[in-house]
Amino acid sequence: xxxxxxxxxxxxxxxxxxxxxxxxxxxxxxxxxxxxxxxxxxxxxxxxxxxxxxxxxxxxxxxxxxxxxxxxxxxxxxxxxxxxxxxxxxxxxxxxxxxxxxxxxxxxxxxxxxxxxxxxxxxxxxxxxxxxxxxxxxxxxxxxxxxxxxxxx
Length: 153
Prior knowledge:
By secondary structure, this protein is α+β, with helices and mostly antiparallel strands. It has helices at about 10-20, 30-40, 90-105, 120-125; strands at about 1-5, 45-50, 55-65, 70-80, 110.
């Protein structure tokens, strides 16, 4: 396995992995623009895992100074491993590498928000030593179609 920072050439496969995670097709033109902007911004780090020349995992995180911590914090924004490569220790290794990267970037903590319906993912994060100390609330600002919580649309 090779773990490295993503490149602009990885955009399409990262897109595919994240669409699979979300169980929906995102608008590629908007995704590509955001991906390129983040790829050139030191506040973001997109870690990929390659095996046999193919990207099979992605973990995208953001670094920011937060007032309520008075510290620099890392937040995992997206994290997906190809379905045929799950339960092989890749996610565990990606979490470990992301923690090291965040620490090297001066972060004192790493956080992740996860949909309440992703029970297997919750168990994974707990196994990796994370704690569920917070609730995260959200509301749609456009196309508000109610409080329903589903994976993908």
